[in-house]
Design a protein that fits this description.
It is a single chain. The protein is an alpha/beta fold. β4, α4 and β5 form a beta-alpha-beta unit. α1 packs across α12 and α4 packs parallel to α6. The two termini are 16 Å apart. 43% of the residues are buried.
């Protein structure tokens, strides 16, 4: 898509959105930050002093933008996803777990000529998983370890009454499938949702979540057993200052995904 200039819309300026916005404003050839949707426009202007584009409602981003990057609370996911796809735009969700709850969006994208592009985010090796899925994958397991504060307030933690304060050793707080786990950790397991979509699906991808006072980084270990390869990968993500649930690499992955839409050379599947 070299020579094409794409208008980018951002829904939300949280730990990921703000970093993506600053990168676009600093200059990415072929990409322009054209519109932003936020609750507090004055605060957003203070964050982005060089921004000269429009501030619009989430549902209006697809009116003028070619690509819409979603970084909103889960309850607002459809408010930006549906109108963006209805207009045949490219929708890039950061709340990937919400796709499992709203799978009708895939059919909507197909019907209206839109596309859903999930960035790699805080994971590694998705290219290998996608490649293995072209053959036969027998099993995929993901073990997530996070500092206890990174899991605080998650619906599953609240519902089960797990006490995260004062932990002195790691505690497994969830074991099951990705589909079972994502609703209980909507702000923590987007990475697991992306893994399941790249491989054998949310009902066959196994997941463990640990609250571990011995780690300072969000750590994910993935084990894949396939007819083409067997591999294990571990990544330790540095949390953002704004949101300890989100790794810094998530924003960088989003920027890389956007850059790949217009770059003359693209490396990877």
């Amino acid at each position: 898509m070299t020579g094409v200039s794409l208008k980018i819309g951002l829904a939300g300026l949280g730990g990921v959105g703000e970093t993506v916005a600053r990168a676009l404003l600093a200059g990415v050839p072929g990409l322009t930050l054209a519109a932003v949707a936020v609750r507090d426009e004055a605060r957003a202007r203070a964050k982005l002093p060089g921004y000269a584009g429009a501030f619009v409602a989430p549902e209006a981003l697809g009116d003028t933008c070619d690509v819409v990057v979603e970084g909103l609370p889960p309850a607002l996911f459809r408010s930006v996803a549906v109108p963006t796809l209805e207009r045949g735009r490219l929708f890039m969700p950061l709340s990937v777990g919400q796709l499992l709850e709203h799978w009708d969006l895939v059919a909507l994208a197909e019907a209206r000529g839109g596309r859903i592009h999930v960035p790699t985010g805080a994971l590694l090796g998705l290219d290998a998983v996608r490649a293995a899925a072209e053959g036969e994958i027998r099993s995929v397991t993901m073990v997530t370890r996070k500092p206890p504060r990174g899991l605080a307030g998650a619906p599953h933690i609240v519902a089960t009454g797990i006490d995260l304060d004062g932990l002195t050793e790691a505690v497994r707080v969830f074991s099951g499938t990705v589909r079972e786990g994502v609703p209980g950790f909507p702000a923590n397991l987007n990475v697991a949702a992306a893994l399941s979509l790249a491989g054998i699906g949310p009902d066959r991808t196994r997941l463990e979540v640990w609250a571990d006072p011995g780690v300072t980084r969000n750590t994910h270990t993935i084990t894949v057993d396939a007819d083409s390869a067997r591999f294990t990968m571990t990544i330790e993500n540095v949390p953002t200052e704004i949101n300890p649930r989100t790794g810094r690499i998530t924003a960088l992955s989003t920027i890389a995904a956007l850059r790949g839409l217009v770059a003359p050379l693209r490396v990877g599947t």
